[in-house]
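From the methods appendix. Each design record in this collection lists the discretized structure first, followed by the designed amino acid sequence. Records were kept in a plain field format so they could be parsed without special tools. The example shown here is representative of the layout used throughout.

RECORD:
C-ALPHA CELLS (281 positions):
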C-alpha cells in the first residue's frame, strides 16, 4: 500500500491511471477503523482495479470541539488493517493540505430540508462540513465509485445530493451497517465507551428493532415515545428517535402501510454520541 500525504502527488498518480482506464474505488473515513470500514474497503477491492482509502478527521464537521479532540486515533492499527484488506492507496492529508485557504467554507451547499432534520438539527453546520470535505476529497481522488455505509443514513442522502449538484459521474455504492454480535452498530466512537456503557449501548438497536417489529399494530407516535422512555431509563440522553421516509427523511407520525421508511436514533451515553438506523420495510 502506498501512503500519500500531499493531494498533488495522489492526483498525479490517479490522473495517470485514469488515462489507462483503470477503475478506481474510494472509501473516505476518519480512521479508528473497524470491520464496518474494512467491509467497504473489501467491497471496493472486489469491484475496482485501484482502491483508495482516506483517513482525515475533518475538523469542519465537528460542532463540538471536545468531540473532535477525543475522536479516537489508531493509525498503526489502521494501516495494518488496510494492508490486510488489499487497499492500494492510503491518503492521509494534514488539515492544511485539505484546507489550504483555511477551514472557513468557500461556499454554501444547498441541502434543503435534509440540513434541518435529525443530525442536521442536532449538529448545526455538520453537513456543510461533510460536503466541504467530501467535495475536496472527490476533487483530489476523482473516483469512479464512492463507497459509503448505511450507518450514516442521512450522510448518504446528503452526499448523493452533493454528487448530483456537482454533476459528477462518480457512482455511489452504499453498504449495509455492520454490527457487533449483540446488534450494536460498529463505530469508531464505541472505543470511547466503558465496559458497562458498551453493554447498555446495544439498546439503541433494540429500540429501533422494536419499532420495526410493531409498526403494523401500534401507533408510530406511541412506538417512538416508548423507545425514548426506555432509552432514557437505561441512562441515555436521547437526541431523537424518529421514523422517516427513506428518500428524503420527511418525518412520519403515522404509517399508511405503503411508505418506505427508516427508523433512526441518536443518543448519548455520558458524552459519547451514538447513532443508528434500521430499514423498516
Ligand atoms: P467514519 O470513519 O465514521 O466517517 O466512517 C467512514 C465510512 O464508513 C462512512 O461511509 C460510514 O458510513 C462507514 N461506516 C461506519 N461504520 C459502519 C458500519 N458499522 N457498517 C458499515 N459502514 C460503516
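DESIGN:
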Amino acid at each position: 500500500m502506498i501512503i500519500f500525504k500531499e493531494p498533488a502527488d495522489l492526483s498525479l498518480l490517479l490522473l495517470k491511471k485514469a488515462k489507462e482506464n483503470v477503475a478506481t474505488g474510494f472509501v473516505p473515513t476518519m480512521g479508528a477503523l473497524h470491520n464496518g470500514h474494512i467491509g467497504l474497503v473489501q467491497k471496493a477491492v472486489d469491484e475496482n482495479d485501484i482502491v483508495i482509502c482516506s483517513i482525515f478527521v475533518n475538523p469542519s464537521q465537528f460542532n463540538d470541539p471536545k468531540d473532535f479532540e477525543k475522536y479516537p486515533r489508531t493509525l498503526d492499527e489502521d494501516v495494518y488493517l488496510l494492508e490486510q484488506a488489499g487497499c492500494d492507496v492510503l491518503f492521509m492529508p494534514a488539515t492544511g493540505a485539505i484546507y489550504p485557504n483555511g477551514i472557513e467554507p468557500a461556499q454554501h451547499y444547498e441541502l434543503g430540508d435534509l440540513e434541518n432534520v435529525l443530525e442536521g438539527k442536532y449538529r448545526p453546520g455538520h453537513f456543510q462540513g461533510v460536503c466541504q470535505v467530501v467535495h475536496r476529497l472527490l476533487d483530489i481522488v476523482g473516483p469512479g465509485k464512492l463507497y459509503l455505509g448505511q450507518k450514516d443514513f442521512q450522510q448518504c442522502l446528503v452526499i448523493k445530493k452533493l454528487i448530483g449538484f456537482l454533476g459528477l459521474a462518480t457512482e455511489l455504492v452504499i453498504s449495509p451497517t455492520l454490527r457487533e454480535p449483540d446488534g450494536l452498530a460498529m463505530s469508531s466512537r464505541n472505543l470511547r465507551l466503558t465496559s458497562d456503557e458498551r453493554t447498555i449501548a446495544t439498546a439503541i438497536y433494540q429500540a429501533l428493532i422494536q419499532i420495526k417489529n410493531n409498526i403494523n399494530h401500534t401507533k408510530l407516535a406511541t412506538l417512538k415515545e416508548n423507545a425514548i422512555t426506555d432509552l432514557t431509563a437505561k441512562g441515555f440522553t436521547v437526541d431523537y428517535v424518529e421514523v422517516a421516509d427513506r428518500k428524503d427523511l420527511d418525518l412520519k407520525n403515522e404509517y399508511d402501510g405503503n411508505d418506505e421508511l427508516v427508523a433512526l436514533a441518536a443518543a448519548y451515553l455520558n458524552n459519547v454520541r451514538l447513532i443508528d438506523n434500521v430499514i423498516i420495510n
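APPENDIX NOTE: The beta strands are 2-4, 24-29, 50-55, 89-91, 145-149, 171-175, 236-245, 261-269, 272-279.
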